[in-house]
Amino acid sequence: MHTNIDPRELIGRRAVDRNGTRIGTVDEVYLDDATGTPEWAAVRTGLFSRDAFVPLEPSELIDEELRVPFDRSLVREAPDFGVGRHLSPEQELQLYRHYGLDVPGGSAPSPEDRDFGRLAGDAPGAAAESPTPPEAEGGSGGTTGEGTDPRG
User: DSSP string spanning 21-85?
Assistant: First the structure.
């Protein structure tokens, strides 16, 4: 997403899929460790549901809504890592693969490699137990929630 908007401005906005179907509400924004730019949004998919991570780069902010260029079903099938924790490089790779996006510094995964967001050997739905240290390469560690500073 090419934006000059403060990532905190995304919190609470409605997220819709490419067809305009409501996905949920932006709960948190994850910043790239190296650049500090918004990279992922955690979207609350329902009252008793979970947060699904969506990439901000191909998404657009249109008329107060975050328009995600994927179908709602694909977003709801995204790997669940919980919110409020650092995304490790491995978790980000799973998300890039899930959405069929180019991996920064790499190439787009093949359809056979996609496996709906799981890396070979990972159990379905498995998530890392401990966060990756902020100084680790890659990863989106910084989150922006209500009342937090996205710069630090």
Answer: -EEEEEEEEEE-TTT--EEEEEEE-STTS-EEEEESTT-EEETTEEE-SS-HHHHHTS----SSS
Q: State the Cα–Cα distance between residues 152 and 148, nearest whole angstrom.
A: 9
CA distance to 23, 41, 104, per residue, from 133 (Å): 31, 20, 20
Q: Residue 25 is encoded by which pair of tokens?
A: 């509400």
pLDDT digits 0-9 by tens, 15-26:
999 999 999 999
From the list 118, 93, 88, 121, the residue with the least C-alpha distance to 107 is 93
Q: Domains in the chain, start-ordered, CATH in brackets? A: 7-144 (2.30.30.240)
For the chain, list residues with pLDDT below 50.
107-137, 146-152
| pTM of this prediction exceeds 0.70 | no
Q: How far is CA 28 from the centre of its chain?
A: 9
Element containing residue 91 per DSSP (H, E): helix 89-99
Give residue-wise pLDDT tens across range 21-57: 999 999 999 998 888 889 999 999 977 778 999 999 8
